[in-house]
Amino acid sequence: MTGHRPTTPAEPAQLAPQYAPAQVETRRYEGWIDAGYFTPDADGDGPAYTIVIPPPNVTGSLHIGHALDHTLIDALIRRRRMQGYRTLWLPGMDHAGIATQNVVERELAKEGLSRHDLGREKFVERVWQWKASSGGAILGQMRRLGDSVDWTRERFTMDEGLSRAVHTMFKLLFDEGLIYRAERIINWCPRCLTALSDIEVEHVDEDGELISIRYGDGNDSIVVATTRPETMLGDTAVAVHPDDPRYAHMIGRTVELPLTGRRIPVIADPHVDPEFGTGAVKVTPAHDPNDFEIGRRHDLPSLTIMDERAVITAPGPFRGLDRFEARPAVLAALREEGRVVAEIRPYRHSVGHCGRCGTTVEPRLSLQWFVKVAPLAKAAGDAVRDGRVRLHPPEMAARYFDWVDDMHDWCISRQLWWGHRIPVFYGPNGAVVSPAPGEQPPTGEGWHQDPDVLDTWFSSGLWPFSTLGWPDDTPDLRAFYPTSVLVTGYDILFFWVARMMMLGLHAMAGRDPADAVPFRTVALHGLVRDSRGRKMSKSRGNTVDPLDWIDRFGADALRFTLARGANPGADVAVSEEWAAGARNFCNKLWNAARFALMNGAYAPDGPPDPVALSVPDRWILSRLASVTERVDAQFEEFEFGKLSEVLYHFAWDEYCDWYLELAKVTLASGDEAAADRSRAVLGYVLDRLLRLLHPLIPFVTEELWTALTGEDSVVVAAWPGRQASGAGTREPPALRDPEAEAEIASLTRLVTQVRRFRSDQGLRPGQRVAARLAGLERTPLAGHEASIRALLRLSAPADGFAPTGSVQSEGVTVELDTVGAIDVEAERRRLEKDLVAAADEIGRTQRKLANPGFTAKAPAEVIEKTRQRLAAAQAEAEALQARLEALPPA
Fold this sequence. Notes:
Layout: H1 25-35, E1 48-52, H2 64-83, E2 86-90, E3 92-93, H3 97-110, H4 115-118, H5 120-133, H6 137-145, E4 155-156, H7 160-175, E5 179-189, E6 194-196, E7 201-215, E8 222-226, E9 237-240, E10 254-256, E11 263-268, E12 280-283, H8 289-298, H9 323-336, E13 345-354, E14 362-371, H10 374-385, E15 390-392, H11 396-404, E16 410-411, E17 413-414, E18 424-427, E19 430-433, E20 448-449, E21 453-454, H12 456-460, H13 463-466, H14 475-480, E22 483-489, H15 493-507, H16 513-516, E23 519-525, E24 528-530, H17 546-553, H18 555-564, E25 572-574, H19 576-598, H20 615-636, H21 640-667, H22 672-693, H23 698-709, H24 738-760, E26 769-774, H25 785-792, E27 794-795, E28 805-809, E29 812-817, H26 824-849, H27 852-857, H28 860-886
Helix pairs in contact: 2-18, 10-11, 10-15, 17-18, 18-19, 18-21, 19-21, 19-23, 20-21, 20-22, 20-24, 21-22, 22-23, 26-28
């Protein structure tokens, strides 16, 4: 992928003193687009690797969940591109039926208009105008994040090609008897005036009341418990469990329904929970999904008592009341008749709300279009069970099976004007499906099209193949289907993932079963939460605007923060401090590259020959080989958090903090041959490190890598690890050097111990101190004296050297003369002040632990933490006292 690079240094590139993301990101992104790096050739070389973007709503803007999703997808795509795959990350948007219609209706309201004032055709035209002018802002925001999507293949769920795919799938399922129209209980929003899918309903625990009501009188009475007394107006039975002895005598009898004068039967049904309330429940088939099923089993009538706006329509005094107005009115009437037989008990239960407007959802019996999901769901379950599709992490499979193995038929009709209109026409001879988009069946008097549109999830369920040209056999469909990975949150495993599985397998049934699946792997991540693990919400004030973080810290910092917290299937915690830390990491890389370039580092075409290298050079090359192997393996398992940590610590701790300092010794040694070898190693490792980091932080790595190598772009540079051909790793096994790793590990332990001693003695990090390294010549560190002295700022001992302290580590005794190096009196005052603080902490914790009220009531973990604080304070006091006593006299 990259051309030949020089094996000797060239003129060093110039980098600015500081990294300024705003001056780099837009310029680099537009350069990538212009170069065509993100646009694969369907007939090109190399295996295909495809991801279709989870289509954001056309009304949406980039939120932190999008930023997480896109960061992980982009990391996968960028790595595969570097590995030699034909990578396609296909972008697009969802038309978002309810959300978009609501947005445009609000715009109309500002003009004093409603959609009905315009009529359907003009209203849809207005929505398209809004989409052209204001919709899709998120696409520009994706550019700011660095998404390496193929903009030439951008799709929209309402564009001509995808509309044709939707029509074709509807007709296919209809002709096979898998789409039907029937009256069923559905989720209904009385404000949006439409049916809702399960995912469009948000369930919230709310405080309610459990009310016990006596139906009938005397021996013909039974007490039921309910949280919705207003729906009793539509009751057509009372149900008890068939094995409940309390009500055996009532089964088959009738009771009078209060407030109505109607008599209704008492029936036995195993669905009833004898432990709930009184063990007897009211049955309202037209207003409760469970009651509807009971009604079907017992052939009960279904009485609709509310209209589409949830206003009571049942004859009587409550007619015309809103459902929430009717509830207290019905309860008052029941009390007046003496029907409330027990105190009303508080009852907390889950209540569904419309995800778009927040209105409480009303279960409603309605004539709707449904997909018969049983055969489709079975196929979706089988694809995971037989391994054609892998869910990651694997433990998510159980949740997936719970859903697909017990899926209810899917309501696909919506009472909206914006969306794919159901292609069914009704006429004198019944109903027919339009033969093709835009074509109508024989027209004439009495023919009209169904007014409803299809559920948005129906069209997005076709996304992995409709975006590639299905139902036509296109080059893209042949090259890029099945897609490779679906990256998405675990929260839509059931709703979107399952629908794509069902529809994809059915649409591609003519293919080999292994190639009919919509994706090979589903990689599920969690939700983004704050640093305390709390869900983000505006009411808590803990939401994060990713665009704000990009403005303040840079896109790379946002991406690295999210990737570093991402573990398969687990929620991701973030904080502003972590984003600032990620920005500092980018700056650390920048400074390291600047140092390397200023000192003549260059990137040779291949690894330097280890035989001629110093131990530090061999060590860093060995560590690079190990890190490359680990990162490769972790990418394959979607362990973004782990691979980010590995790269972070290798870059910051090993390359920047240790190797660069060790290389300085060689560069300043006067041995030009050794210095040139270190320059090659400096550049080689930096080259590979920037490639490894590029999928996570593309902008800063692009700027640094092109400065180091003089080549066009790291986007298309070869990945340091495994390639598309599967040919092992690019880092030769000969670079692994356990002896060098052990030797430098010993050196770092010695240096760390002496640095700790220096700090304890109050010595400044840069302050030089005379020291003798006793026993060094008898250890493997004998050849590292110059490095040890440089790292520790130790000068050679002069005549009359008299050590005042020593450190023993790794078989070496480092004797130091600190006399004159520190202000003894100032250090004594500092130590005495710290000793007083430690004594205060000891006193506080001892008093707390001696308090019986604390030890008896506090949780065990709090008591244990207090004991740990006491032990730490006591140890600190002992160390401070020892250092005071070791100070020389003033």
